[in-house]
Design goal:
This protein is of the alpha/beta class. The protein is built from twelve helices and nine strands.
Length: 296
């Protein structure tokens, strides 16, 4: 069954073509091997890979480097919504792959539509980033622009996907019919250091929709999450509404977060950062599409 048909049967609508991929024929199960993806990338010429540091884009970078060698470059867009930990991770992953890596500044905060933090915030973010990436690629004479979008991503409303399509990005994993478990399995087989890393999202995603975003708020969220991550928690979200903070960690780590002295110390530290009240969510992070792999 094609991906588009399967999603329509669930009441979801997708365009027939996404990033140059025919969604009517792309399979919901893997129909292309890693070797086939490498050949597909090689056939399309020199490439820019939008590398966030997550496992999806990291695997694309690895496959592209195998396909193209020095004709592939990984580019990480740097702005106030990208935590320093994430840009550092992207650089580390690129080094482990061997691919050339560039940190490219592009600031969505310059767009008032983005700062307004409406339902289409991600569209304006990706539009700014896509424009910067295309301009960089044009200067380098690159022929294709790749990202890590995969089949599971189509199950969500993603305004950002529309923007990257408008920027002309192609999606190797959609072409291959791969979903998140396929990506993790192949990343592990290739020895990528982040194959089991939790998925992340930009810092702006922590701010309640409709509340304005500014540089100071994003920096406060990054600092709050950083001090909790430094305590050994694997995935942390500090969500904010009206000046208050709600802390989420993975369900398996909630008990440790709520235990003293950790609970009191985290609460005090976040209040010192400027949050009016702090809630430690006893339910944990409600991730649904990316359960962490079981480490054996």
């Amino acid at each position: 069954m094609g991906v588009a048909r399967g999603l329509r049967e669930k009441g979801m609508v997708t365009p027939p073509m996404i990033g140059g991929v025919d969604m009517e024929t792309s399979s919901a199960a893997p129909r292309a091997s890693a070797d086939a993806i490498v050949a597909w990338i090689r056939s399309r010429g020199p490439a820019l890979i939008a590398l966030s540091g997550g496992v999806d884009s990291s695997l694309v970078a690895s496959l592209a480097y195998e396909a193209l060698g020095e004709r592939a470059v990984a580019v990480t867009v740097s702005n106030a919504a990208l935590a320093t930990r994430e840009s550092d991770r992207a650089a580390s992953v690129a080094r482990s792959i061997g691919i050339a890596h560039v940190l490219l500044a592009a600031e969505p905060l310059d767009r008032p539509e983005y700062r307004a933090n409406g339902a289409d915030r991600c569209y304006f973010c990706r539009a700014v980033e896509g424009s910067a990436l295309r301009a960089y690629g044009a200067r380098r004479g690159l022929a294709q622009y790749l990202d890590g979008i995969h089949v599971d991503d189509l199950a969500d409303d993603r305004p950002g996907l529309r923007a990257v399509n408008e920027a002309g990005f192609a999606h190797p994993f959609l072409w291959a019919g791969w979903s998140k478990p396929d990506i993790r399995a192949n990343a592990r087989a290739r020895g990528l250091p982040n194959w089991d890393r939790p998925s992340d999202a930009c810092l702006a995603s922590r701010v309640a929709r409709g509340e304005p975003i500014d540089r100071e708020l994003l920096a406060r969220i990054e600092s709050a999450e950083g001090l909790i991550l430094d305590r050994g928690f694997r995935r942390v979200r500090v969500r904010t509404r009206s000046g208050a903070a709600r802390v989420e960690v993975d369900p398996g780590e909630v008990e440790r977060l709520l235990a003293e002295p950790t609970a009191g110390e985290v609460t005090l530290a976040l209040k010192q950062l400027g949050f009016s009240t702090v809630t430690l969510d006893p339910r944990g992070y409600p991730g649904k599409h990316d359960p962490l792999p079981v480490l054996r």
